[in-house]
Amino acid sequence: MEKVKIPRATAKRLPLYYRYLIILSEAGKEKVSSTELSDAVQVDSASIRRDFSYFGALGKRGYGYDVKNLLGFFKKILNQDTLTNVALVGVGNLGHALLNYNFKRSNNIRISCAFDIDKNITGRILSGVPVYDMSELKQQLSDQQISIAILTVPSLHAQKTADEMFEAGIQGVMNFTPIRISAPANVRVQNVDLATELQTLIYFLDSDKQEH
Amino acid sequence: MEKVKIPRATAKRLPLYYRYLIILSEAGKEKVSSTELSDAVQVDSASIRRDFSYFGALGKRGYGYDVKNLLGFFKKILNQDTLTNVALVGVGNLGHALLNYNFKRSNNIRISCAFDIDKNITGRILSGVPVYDMSELKQQLSDQQISIAILTVPSLHAQKTADEMFEAGIQGVMNFTPIRISAPANVRVQNVDLATELQTLIYFLDSDKQEH
DNA sequence: TCATTTATGTGCATGAATGAACAAAGAGAA
DNA sequence: TTCTCTTTGTTCATTCATGCACATAAATGA
User: Fold this and answer.
1) Cβ–Cβ contacts within 10 Å for residue B7, how many?
2) How far B131 CA sits from the closest chain A CA (Å)?
3) If you ran DSSP here, which 8-state letter would residue B31 be given?
4) How many CB atoms lie within 10 A of CB A145?
C-alpha cells in the first residue's frame, strides 16, 4: 500500500477516526459529515477534513463521507487488514493488565508473546499468552518475526532490557517505564509516562484555579 | 505559591525534569548543566534553558544549575510538597495495575479510594486502597476532598460514569477508556489511549520502512 | 429545471514550539 | 588581577498545527 507523507499530528489522529468509524458502521450509519465526527472525536471539523484530504478527495460535497468507504480506506492505511503481533517485556502489574487488554477488537493488534525473568511465571501461559524467559527473547522475536515490543519492566532494568530488545531486532518500543531510554536512531520509541501525565493534569488544574 | 504563565509544552516537561533531578540528587550530584540534563531527558538543551527561564534566572553562567536549589524550586511549583489524593473509578485489569503503581515515590500522588460496581470487590481493601460501591462516589469524594479521578471502566459505561463523577465534583480526569468523554467546560480531561498509541507507533514504523 | 441548502476541500492568518546561534556573565586557572 | 573557558539566557528564523472563512460542488426540493 503506497502511502502519502502525513503530518505527525494527523497520523496520531488516524486510529481515533478509525475507531469511531467502526462504531458508526456498527450502528448502521451510512454517511457521516465532518461536523458530526467532530463532535464525537472532539477535533475541529476543518482539521478532520484536512486530515482526510491528505489521502485524496474522500468525501462528496453536500453529502459527507461514506462510512463503509472511509472505513475500508483507513483499514488499509492503518494496516488493519493484517494482524500485527507485538511482544510484551516485563509481566508485572501493568504487564498483566496489558495482557488482558483487548487490542484486537478494534485494532487488530495482538500480544503474541511475553518475557520476564521471574521463574514463577516463565514457561507458563498467562491470559492466553506464553511467557518466556528473557534468555529466549532473541530467538522468539526472530521466530515470530516481531519488531514491536511493549516495555513494562522496573525502571532499574529499563535501559538494560531495552538494549537486549534492540539487540534482538526490535524496531518500535512502547515504553511504559519512567526512564527515557536511549535507542539506536532507526528505532522508534513511544513513551507512555503515567505518573507524568497525572502530574501534568494536577499542574494544569492548579493553574486553572489560580486564574479565577 | 504564585505561578507564572507557562506554555503547555513546558508544563508537560516539568514532571520529567523533576524526576531526573531526584535521580541526580540521590546520586549526590551538586550541579548540572542544561547539556547534561538534555542527554538524560532527551530534550534540546536550549529548550531546557528556556523552560527553566520562565521561572526566573535559576542557573549561573559558566557553572550550570544547582541541583538542590532546582529540586526545591520544582517541588513547590509542582505541588510536590503536599500529597495529592486521587480516586480510581473502575477496578478492572488496568485499575488493579494502577492500584499497585507507585505514584507516591517520585510524585507524591496517592490513590486514596477506588470505586466499582462489582459486589465481589466493593467493601474490601485492595493493595491498601478501600474499594467503595459507585453509589458512595459523591459522599466519599466530598468527604476526602478529592477533585481528580482516574477513569478505568469499560468503554460502554465511560460517559455515564464520567457524568456521575462530574456530578460529584471531579475537576480533572485521566481517561483510560478509548471513548472521548464530553465534559463540562471547567473540567480537564487527559486522555491516555493505549491502543491508539500503539497503533500510531505501528503506523510510523511502516512509513519509516517505506522511506528506505 | 432552477434555487436553495449542505458540506467538502483549501487558502490564509495566527500562534505555538523548536533548535541554532550568540552575547553576556560568571567560574576557574595562571 | 587578568585571561580563558564554560554555560546561561535570549534572539531569531523556521516549522508545525489550528481553525476561520469561503469558493466550489453536489444533493435536495419545488
Assistant:
1) 11
2) 18
3) E
4) 8
